[in-house]
Amino acid sequence: MLHWSGTRVPYSLHRHDARQLWGPGRLGIKNKRHVAELSSQSRAVRLEDIGAQLEVRRHPSARRLTLRVSRTRRAVIVTLPLQCDLDEAGTFLNRHIDWVRARLDSLPNHIPFEDEVAMPLRGEAHRIAFTGAARTRIISVECDARSHPTILVPGPKDLAAARLTRWLFDQAKSDLEKSVAEHAARLSLKAKRITIRDQTSRWGSCSTTGSLSFSWRLILAPSFVLDYVAAHEVAHLAEMNHGPRFWALVKKIRPEFEAAKQWLQVRGPDLHRYGPDHGRNH
Question: Which branch of life, at top level (predicted)?
Answer without folding.
Answer: Bacteria
